[in-house]
Design a protein that fits this description.
Blueprint (H helix, E strand, L loop, with lengths): L12 H9 L1 H20 L4 H28 L2
Helix pairs in contact: 1-3, 2-3
Length: 76
C-alpha cells in the first residue's frame, strides 16, 4: 500500500497569475519578430524600416509584462 502524501500549496496566487500573464507578452514578441523575419525575406531592402517598427512594438509588448510584474508585487 502506498503512503498518503499531504500536499499543501503555499504562496500567493498572484505568482500563478503572473506566470500565466507572461504568455501574452511572450507570444506578442514572437509574433512581432516573426513578422519582421517574414517581411525581410519578402523585401530585404525594407529591413531597416521594419526593424525600427519592430523595436517599438517589442517595447510596447514588454511594457505589458512589466505592468504585470508590478501588479503581482503590489497585490501581494
Amino acid at each position: 500500500m502506498l503512503p498518503m502524501l499531504d500536499i499543501t500549496i503555499s504562496g500567493s496566487i498572484n505568482v500563478l497569475g503572473y506566470g500565466l500573464a507572461t504568455l501574452g507578452p511572450a507570444i506578442g514578441v514572437a509574433m512581432v519578430f516573426a513578422a519582421v523575419i517574414n517581411g525581410t525575406a519578402r523585401q530585404p531592402e525594407a529591413r531597416g524600416a521594419m526593424m525600427s517598427t519592430a523595436w517599438i512594438g517589442f517595447a510596447v509588448v514588454e511594457a505589458l509584462a512589466l505592468v504585470g510584474v508590478a501588479l503581482a508585487f503590489a497585490l501581494q
